[in-house]
Amino acid sequence: MKKPFKPLIAIVLALCLSVGALVPASAAASASALLHPNWNGWKMAWNVAQLVWDFGAQFFFSAGDAEKVRQIVNSTPILKKSDKQPAVLDLGLEDLAYESFEEFWKAMEDGLKAVGMVDWYIAFKETSKKPIYNVVVIVTTIDQRQYQVDTGADYNWDNGLFYGRDYNGILGRGNDYNAQNHSPQKSVGNIKKYAGFNEGYDFAGQLLYNLQTLRFRFDYQGKDWMIQLWKGSYYLISNGMEVGIYSKPKDREFHYDCEYDNPLVMDGKLWRGDKLICEFAPLNTWWLATFRPENALFNVYTPDKMRFEGSITFKDKAMLTAFKKSVDAQKLQNFSYTISGMKFSYNWTEGK
Fold first, then answer.
1. How far is CA 233 from CA 205, 226, 266, 301, 307, in A?
2. Three-state DSSP class for 292?
3. Could you tell me which residue, 45 or 326, shows the higher pLDDT?
4. Exposed, middle or buried: residue 18 (CB in 10 Å: 0-12, 13-18, 19+)?
5. SS3 36
6. Cα separation of 284 and 324, whole Å?
7. CA nearest 227: which of 315, 162, 133?
8. DSSP state of 304
9. String of b and e for 52-91 (b: at least 16 CB within 10 Å)?
10. Among 183-192, 203-212, 285-294, 306-315, which range has the highest average pLDDT?
11. Whole-number Å distance between alpha carbons of 227 and 244
């Protein structure tokens, strides 16, 4: 394997937790380590805490460093199938959905403490399904034995996506991370799938977001469906785009269910002129959502200055036809499309 490069831990962990978790993560990891003064794991705790804080700060305030992220990823060692394989150390990390970084850290710390860990690094473990690699932690113990710990996360070398193997996000937090364009994106199994959707969400979101939205309602298989698109700025620090797929019984007036049992293959790119802001690779999902934090307010754009291009591949001709009819009925001036088979490709351009 190549020389270990530890900063990847910050990508794998910090970027897939909530904003609020970054600060307590640092304090909790450091404080937790001090409770074990006789265990040299305190050094790892401090290093990880520092990396999480540093990378978190870079992520939210200096997000122009996508190239640095790519360098970190490309420098990560690869554990090939032909290499001597370290014994598997099962800490159960991949089977749990952690409520916070503190909870994850405690599970990690307890397991590594038990085997006398003295050194560690992140590696990509080769699988039979190229370009997919498992993300593992390689641990060296006090007696110089090596173990591998599965994080439950995978990395797709082709599209740069770190994602939870169970599609519930890394560490079960509902967020994945695209290293190619340095942006988080929502996982297929995000817990919001149970919340449904209605226009009241958009009304409340006006306090934090500056968005344009398009709603396309249509009838399909005896239910009312809606596919909604968004583009704009979020929390005044990021640009992003979303597509959601929803449906409801015809006798329900207002609230839609998220169609997580009937996902569609979708992809998207958000542009400001010829600058690619963020990208979502093709994925079978009910909610396409990705955001790119910016390092200055003048890089956060109003939605009318951005262009959203993407595609949706429908299940059958009836669904495609019903959706197309809804689009045509609105006679939108800055929304065009082409159709190839079941694939509906659209271009939502700049403008009001």
1. 11, 23, 21, 6, 13
2. strand
3. 326
4. exposed
5. coil
6. 20
7. 315
8. G
9. bbebbebbbeebeebeebeebbeebbebeeeeeebeebeb
10. 306-315
11. 6
Instruction: Express each pLDDT in 17-32 by its tens digit.
Output: 433 222 222 222 222 3
Sequence letter at residue 55: F
SS3 at position 91: coil
Terminal Cα distance for the chain, rounded: 53
Q: How far apart are CA 93 and CA 165, in angstroms?
A: 12
Model pLDDT, residue 104: 63
Q: How far is CA 43 from CA 50, 107, 109, in A?
A: 11, 17, 12
Number of Cβ within 10 Å of residue 335's Cβ equals 17
Cβ of 246: how many Cβ atoms within 10 Å? 22
The first and second tokens of residue 76, run together, are: 């990560």
The confidence score (pLDDT) of residue 145 equals: 84
pLDDT per position as a tens digit, 218-245: 999 999 999 999 999 887 778 899 999 9
Pull the structure tokens for residue 153. Answer: 């996360």
